[in-house]
Specification:
With 316 residues, this protein is an alpha+beta fold. The chain has one domain (2-313). Helices cover 27% and strands 22% of the residues. The protein is built from nine helices and twelve strands. The structure holds iron/sulfur cluster (2 copies).
C-alpha cells in the first residue's frame, strides 16, 4: 500500500522534508547538481539528470577511516547528520543498492559507509521521459529498491511508493492508495550479451584508442567505487590518519603492485576492464548488472566513446 499526494500539496510536502533534516535535491546554478537546498523554490527537476550522481553522499572523495595517535590505532567515530535526498532517479538509486551490496551485505560491513547510509533517507522520483537521449536504463533490469519513498507524477497527484519505516513516517499524514509505478522506458538500449568470448578480440581497439584516461566516466558513474588507502603520517609526531580516496580503474597506477609491476598497463586493458566489470563480471558474480544505464559515461566522455553502440553493433 502506498500514499497519494495532491499536486496542490507538493510544496508543503517539500517544506515538510526540509524541516526534517538537511534536504539535498537537484539545484541549477551553472549546471544541475545535487546540493543542499536553501529554499524549496530552488529545486529543479526539469533540467535533466544532475551531473554528479548521489554516490558522493555515500562515498566521499576522501575520508579518514582510522586515526593513528601515539602508536595507537582507532576507528574514526564520526557523527553523521540526518540527510534527505530528494529527486534522485532510479538509475542513481539502483546505484546505491549496488553499493549497499558491496559495502554492507557481507560478513564485515564497512563501518563508515554504514553510518552514512543509515543517516540518509532517499525520496526518489520516477522518470516519465528519460532526461537524456543517452539513457538506456530500460535494458538494465532496474529494480524498485534502494529508496525510502518513490514519487510518480500523475495528472492531478503523485503516487508514492513506500519501502521503509523511515519513508512511512514522512508520509503517514497522506491518504493511503494502491499505487502502481511503471518503470521508465528509453529509446536507447543495450543488447545484453555474453561478452566473455570477445575478451581477446580486437573490437576493443577502436574505442580504447580514443580513450585519454581522463577518468571522467568513473567519477560520474553512480556505481564506480574503486578506492585507494593511504597513511598520511606526520613524520615529526608520527601521528596521522589512514585515508580512503576515490580512485579509478582507468588510472595506470591503479593496478600497480609492490615491485612496480602494472597489471593493466595499456589503455585497452583498462578500458576493456571497465566495460566488462560493468556489464559482465559483476553480473556473473552478483546476478545483476553493475551498470544502471544512466548514460553519463557516454554523454560526458571526453572522446564521446559509446560502449553501448560498440557492443550492439560490433560484438557479433
Ligand atoms: S557504466 Fe555508464 S551508463 Fe552505466 S551506470 Fe555507469 S555511468 Fe551510467
Ligand atoms: S571518459 Fe572517455 S576518454 Fe575519459 S577515461 Fe572514460 S572512456 Fe576514456
Amino acid at each position: 500500500m502506498g500514499r497519494v499526494l495532491k499536486k496542490e500539496d507538493y510544496n508543503k510536502f517539500l517544506q515538510h522534508l526540509k524541516d526534517e533534516g538537511e534536504l539535498i535535491a537537484p539545484v541549477t546554478t551553472k549546471m544541475v547538481r545535487f546540493e543542499t537546498v536553501k529554499n524549496i523554490r530552488d529545486i529543479d527537476l526539469n533540467s535533466g539528470n544532475p551531473f554528479f550522481p548521489i554516490k558522493k553522499y555515500f562515498l566521499p572523495n576522501k575520508e579518514a577511516l582510522l586515526k593513528i595517535r601515539s602508536g595507537e590505532t582507532k576507528s574514526v567515530d564520526k557523527v553523521e547528520k540526518k540527510k534527505l535526498i530528494f529527486g534522485a532517479r532510479l538509475c542513481d538509486i539502483n546505484g546505491i543498492a549496488i553499493l549497499d551490496e558491496l559495502f554492507l551485505n557481507h560478513e564485515y560491513a564497512d563501518e563508515a559507509y554504514k553510518k552514512r547510509r543509515d543517516s540518509i533517507i532517499i525520496i526518489g522520483i520516477n522518470c516519465h521521459t528519460p532526461p537524456s537521449k543517452y539513457c538506456f536504463c530500460e535494458s538494465m533490469d532496474l529494480k524498485k529498491e534502494g529508496y525510502d519513498l518513490l514519487l510518480h507524477k500523475r495528472e492531478h497527484n503523485y503516487f508514492i511508493d513506500v519501502l521503509t519505516d523511515n519513508g512511512a513516517k514522512l508520509v503517514r499524514h497522506l491518504p493511503e492508495a494502491e499505487v502502481d509505478i511503471p518503470l521508465p522506458k528509453t529509446k536507447k538500449h543495450l543488447d545484453r550479451k555474453d561478452l566473455k568470448p570477445f575478451f581477446a578480440d580486437n573490437f576493443w581497439e577502436k574505442d580504447s584508442e580514443q580513450c585519454v584516461s581522463c577518468q571522467r566516466c568513473t567519477i560520474l558513474c553512480p556505481t564506480c567505487f574503486c578506492f585507494d588507502l593511504q597513511d598520511e603520517i606526520n613524520p615529526r609526531t608520527k601521528n596521522g590518519d589512514r585515508v580512503r580516496t576515490i580512485d579509478s580503474c582507468h588510472s595506470k597506477d591503479f593496478t600497480q603492485v609492490a615491485g612496480g609491476h602494472v597489471f593493466r598497463d595499456t589503455r585497452l586493458k583498462r578500458y576493456r576492464h571497465r566495460v566488462l566489470h560493468k556489464t559482465q563480471f559483476f553480473q556473473d558474480k552478483f546476478k545483476r548488472s553493475m551498470c544502471t544505464g544512466c548514460g553519463r559515461c557516454i554523454e560526458y566522455c571526453h572522446s564521446k566513446i559509446d560502449f553501448v553502440k560498440t557492443i550492439n553493433e560490433d560484438f557479433q
